[in-house]
Predict the structure.
Amino acid sequence: MDEYQGKWALVTGASAGLGAEFARQLAARGCHVIVTARRQERLEALAAELQDQGVQTVIIPADLASPEAPGAIMAALRQKQISPDILVNSAGFGLTGEYTDRSWAEQGDFLQLMVTACAALAHHCLPGMRERGWGRVINVSSVAGLVPPSAGHTLYGASKAFLVSFTQSLAAETARDGIGCCVVCPGFTYTEFHDVNGTREALNRAMPDWMMLHADDVAAGTLKAADRGHTVHVPGWQYKTIVALARIMPLWLAEKIARAQQGRYRKT
């Protein structure tokens, strides 16, 4: 825990859900925290909460669906002479419906936020971590990136699979530099995610309580996994079991099961 004292953590998607919880837990470890998301009023409320823990906070409202956002965030930090020691890529959302139901502009924005912005921020932050000989890159993926996808949310599983592979490569490249890279792949978690994309009602009907994870547990487990040098972290025994089964069963069977289940909780 002492190694986090006085470090700077940049957390995206910090206005709610996992992003906000990562910010809280990093502050509890003594980190100063940079929070970014679209909703400034949410960031201000979170920053006030974190300051009560005796850490410094910086608020940078930004929409990471914009190609200019990662560079603008880093420019704002350079003006404050801050170089993040920890990066948590937590911003994300889901597009419902079939692939061609959405315009390419919407799909392009989705990829910018879910894939390109994560890669860009890591590219910006890693040189400073290398120079100091310590760092953490935590990417928030999903169990959807480890199992066969279903219809609807067409790019979601693909973007999350990218984050898994991307993190594994970064971990191999940076381990000798004192940098830990970890990707967390949670299943269904109590956050605003399903309220925003309109799937909350279907999810509540289909998903028993024991299948739902809690954001504070996910964040805490991920930080512990990163400290232990784990590259891929799947929270919860239920999702560890699902991922293990998906890997050992024939691919055609895993795909068939995914398709059979999709209507229970997907808004397509």
User: Anything to note?
Assistant: Residues 104-132 form the longest helix (29 residues). Confidence is low (pLDDT under 50) at residues 194-198. The chain has one domain: 2-265.
